């Protein structure tokens, strides 16, 4: 490596450190750590230890090379492990406190009429090579159609259609004791956060949804709708969550779930067969108001399947909402899919640290989630011209919201899960399809922003 290359790398490292330090200072991460009970340990500042772990993927290092092997950090590996493994550390309070601050900034950049949504989804946390990880369990992965060793990462996030922020998560084991490979053996005080996290880990995910929603709403997160995939779309769950916000979710045709229409009960498939379809190549085939077993009035919109002669169904508890609006708003659920892909492929969610302690896993997942918040904030700075200063505030329009066409494109990408389940395409082919879609979306957004800037005579920064 010559002098110029070395100098360039040093300058880039300094620029990265300054950017992260600025983010930590602006959002008072040190105060949030203190408020979450994460205080000085083993002589090292918790903010310094947290920042060192936070920077690892941006420096291109894993936990071993970036923490264990280094002797210039001012603390040892024991301090880093102690930070993550302490069951008294309230990682949930830290994550939610930071998310509220960032969401407040984003809300100031968008109009009141723009929908803010809460999004639920679950993804597999793969630990296939592990055997002695605390609360490790057999988890069914729908993308590959088989069970693997690991956890289910139930995540609740917030989106305004342009920026996404993870708010809360549960690192789930299995409610079925037979599916758990290793039980919790660490002696722990029942008054600690670690004990409550372990109880959540062995609970059914559907039993945790309302508690998570109430927690984020009480913290000050504003939302107009709750969006969910078909894995959570049981009538009882929908009725419970709709007490807090209107729910829009995908449905699946389940033989034991019925909807009341004109005095008779039908399955979702039976209801679709009964309805008159719109003529031609209409994207929305039919829509109808029905009643669930809980006595709740809901609207179901049937959408044409893009890849085969089939249909998809989306439910809304707000029955007076236009069909096109229901589909458009549900399209914002795609943001959490992008988040999961980013967490695993670029932010080292599964492979950065080989921890066996459950508290350590929770701590590490929190750090990774905060990395995504940081990237989401940086993206907004570079995409929304008003953040460059008040000079642009008067001449820039609001960041463009999703239109119906874009929402339909997002909605159609969700059928990839169904393509996987058929086994007709190899996994590498499906991965290329997803990458191509995400690349195309990025190009479209770049073109829109460039066109917007040219229209208003705004120079690129």
Mean pLDDT comes to 85
What structural class results from the helix and strand content? alpha+beta
The total count of strands amounts to: 11
Main sheet makeup: 9 strands, mixed
Count of individual helical segments: 17
* Helical fraction: 40-55%
Descriptive overview:
This protein is an alpha+beta fold. 44% of the residues lie in helices and 16% in strands. It contains 17 helices and 11 strands. The protein has helices spanning 3-26, 29-35, 46-54, 56-59, 63-68, 77-85, 91-108, 193-201, 209-218, 235-241, 268-274, 323-330, 334-345, 358-383, 404-413, 416-422, 427-456, and strands spanning 117-126, 137-141, 146-159, 164-172, 225-228, 247-251, 259-261, 264-266, 284-291, 297-304, 311-316. A hairpin with a 4-residue loop joins strand 3 and strand 4 (164-172). Residues 385-400 have low confidence and may be disordered.
């Amino acid at each position: 490596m010559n002098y110029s290359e070395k100098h360039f790398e040093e300058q880039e490292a300094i620029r990265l450190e300054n950017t992260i330090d600025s983010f930590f200072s602006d959002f008072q991460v040190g105060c949030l750590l203190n408020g979450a009970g994460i205080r000085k340990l083993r002589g090292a500042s918790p903010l310094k230890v947290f920042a060192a772990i936070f920077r690892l993927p941006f420096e291109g290092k894993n936990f071993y090379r970036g923490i264990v092997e280094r002797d210039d950090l001012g603390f040892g590996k024991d301090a880093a492990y102690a930070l993550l493994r302490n069951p008294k550390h309230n990682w949930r309070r830290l994550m939610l406190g930071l998310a509220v601050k960032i969401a407040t900034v984003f809300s100031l950049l968008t109009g009141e009429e723009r929908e803010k949504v809460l999004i639920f989804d679950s993804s597999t946390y793969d630990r296939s090579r592990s055997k002695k990880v605390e609360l490790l369990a057999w988890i069914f992965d729908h993308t590959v159609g088989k069970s693997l060793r690991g956890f289910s990462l139930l995540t609740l996030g917030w989106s305004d259609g342009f920026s996404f922020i993870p708010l809360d998560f549960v690192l789930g084991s299995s409610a079925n004791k037979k599916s758990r490979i290793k039980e919790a053996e660490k002696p722990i005080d029942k008054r600690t956060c670690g004990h409550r996290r372990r109880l959540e880990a062995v609970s059914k995910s559907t039993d945790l949804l309302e508690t998570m929603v109430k927690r984020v709403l009480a913290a000050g997160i504003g939302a107009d709708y709750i969006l969910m995939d078909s894995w959570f779309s049981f009538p009882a769950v929908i009725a419970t969550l709709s007490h807090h916000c209107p729910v829009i979710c995908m449905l699946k045709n389940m033989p034991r779930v019925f909807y009341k229409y004109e005095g008779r009960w039908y399955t979702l498939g039976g209801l679709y067969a009964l309805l008159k379809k719109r003529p031609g190549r209409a994207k929305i085939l039919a829509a109808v108001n029905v009643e669930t077993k809980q006595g709740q009035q809901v609207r179901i919109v049937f959408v044409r399947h893009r890849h085969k002669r089939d249909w998809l169904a989306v439910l809304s508890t707000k029955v007076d909402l236009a069909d096109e609006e229901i589909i458009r708003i549900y399209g914002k659920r795609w943001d959490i899919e992008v988040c999961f892909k980013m967490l695993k492929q670029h932010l080292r969610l599964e492979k950065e640290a080989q921890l066996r302690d459950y508290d350590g896993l929770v701590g590490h997942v929190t750090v990774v989630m905060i990395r995504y918040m940081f990237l989401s904030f940086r993206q907004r700075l570079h995409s929304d011209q008003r953040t460059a200063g008040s000079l642009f505030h008067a001449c820039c329009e609001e960041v463009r919201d999703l239109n119906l066409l874009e929402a339909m494109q997002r909605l159609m990408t969700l059928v990839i899960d169904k393509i996987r389940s058929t086994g007709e395409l190899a996994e590498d082919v499906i991965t290329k399809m997803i990458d191509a879609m995400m690349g195309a979306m990025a190009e479209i957004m770049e073109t829109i922003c460039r066109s917007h800037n040219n229209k208003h005579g705004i120079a690129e920064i």
